[in-house]
Each structure stands twice: as structure tokens, then as C-alpha cells.
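Researcher: Quick one. four chains, 246 residues in total.
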Amino acid sequence: MIRQTKQRQAILEVVERSHDHPTAAQVYERVQQVLPGVGYATVYRNLAALAEEGMIQEIRVGEVTQYDRRSDRHDHAVCGRCGKLVDVMVPLPSEVVQAVLEQSGFQVAGHHTEVFGLCADCR
Amino acid sequence: MIRQTKQRQAILEVVERSHDHPTAAQVYERVQQVLPGVGYATVYRNLAALAEEGMIQEIRVGEVTQYDRRSDRHDHAVCGRCGKLVDVMVPLPSEVVQAVLEQSGFQVAGHHTEVFGLCADCR
DNA sequence: AAGATAATGAAACTCGTTCTCATTTTGGAT
DNA sequence: ATCCAAAATGAGAACGAGTTTCATTATCTT
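Model:
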């Protein structure tokens, strides 16, 4: 049974309020402001649990995992110069999905696209 | 100046001969067969160097980095059940790229799509 | 062959993340 | 309201991929 705890709520609120894509360490820091004393393990455990429940989303960019409040499917654009990460939509046309099936035999259940380039500021 | 060493050659050959997508640890093991005594550091250093030169390709899947002999652009399909990773092509239609530009202001230089689902064997 | 310097191997070290375990909280049953 | 089993917590140890350090070795240029 999944229980309601102050830590869990605080962690969820922090992610939901964040308008960037915080890493676990950043979530940890922000949670400290609200609820000092929360341990790293708790933050990691809850981020993983919340992601599993679909309340938040995990994104792996390079060597760190970042968390995202959005729960709807979306993709990411990463700036090659400043590293900024922004949400974008990259819909895959059904003929592309069909082509993947033909190439690989995979029954496609989901997809995620990472686009790289230069953000508006870095251009 | 970049020097030619037996280790470097062995590492490149191992990746080129591999028809799966070996992790650094797997490359290490396979190199041992050919050239015992090679250190982890050497494997990592050379994989990174070869990737930088564009001789091989680095793919980050979850928490490990895998290496791929293919040097042309391509995408990946990951099986959610057995973890198998296969190469596929997911071309992005120009109108999709255009839409990303409009959404984000990004000048798109490249992209990589990960498709998840069930492979032919796991279906 | 000689010298400059790039590459190597071993081991120590990062750093993000997970595990362990004793203690505290939670929520349903009484 | 109280009790209790199970779930969650916090502290710190442990883990694992990858990187750094540094003394030694190998490679190129002359």
C-alpha cells in the first residue's frame, strides 16, 4: 500500500512547481527549504516511485537524470552550446511507426525523440 | 599527435566486429581475448577518443553507455521485456523539424529517437 | 639510435544512485 | 481513540560506471 507522507508530498510539489527540469540533487536542495532533514535516499526513492506512478516524468540526458512535471508525452530539445533543455512535441507520423515495425519487427508502444541544435539565445 | 597503438587498434576492431551494441565492460572483456592485460582506463580512453573522431558511435541507454560500429545516423528500438536494442531508422519529416523550430526557436542540427515496445521474439 | 611526448596500466578516486537497517509514521482494524 | 503490521524514513555504507593520477612504456620524428 502506498502511504501519504509529508516528504512524498513535498517532493511532488517541488517537481510540480519547478519550471525547469531539476536533477535529483536539485530536487533534494529545494525540498530542504520546505522540509529540512529529508535524506537523499527519500528523495531518490520518491522520485522513482512518482515516476513509476506516472505523476512525474524521468528524462535521462547524458549522465544525469532530470525530472519533469509534465505527465503527457513529449520530447526534448537540448542546446549544444548552453545545455538548455526545453520541451517540444515531435509527433511520429504513422507511416514512420509502420516503417519501424517493418524494419525491426517491434510492436511500438512509445517513443522519445531528442533534438539537438542551438537554442534561440545561442544562435 | 594521435598515435597508433596495438590497444587502440584492438579496441576499434572489437567494436567493428561486434554485431551487438557492447558496453565498455563488454568491449573490455573482448579485448582481453585478443590482447590480455589491457586496462579499463585504456578501453574507456580509447572508446571516448574513437567516438570523438567519429570512428564509432556512443549510445546512452539508461545508465550504461553502449558502443556501435555504425557511423551513419540512425535510431534505436529497445525491447521493454528483454532489453534488446536494435538499430532502426526514424526519419523526421521536414514539417516535423519545422514545427520544432516554431515551438522552441531551436535551430535543429540533429536528432535521435528511441522507440520502445516489444521485439518480435517477446510479442 | 635518441629524444620528446603520447599512451599505457594500476590503483585511487568521483559522483550519481541504491541498499541496509534501526527507528518512526501511517492507515486500517478493533 | 488505540493498536499493530506494514510502509516509509534518515544516516551512512556500498555500489558501479567512468575518470584521474602518475610512474613506466611505446611510438613517432629526426
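The longest strand of chain B covers residues 107-118.
Researcher: Thanks, that's what I needed.
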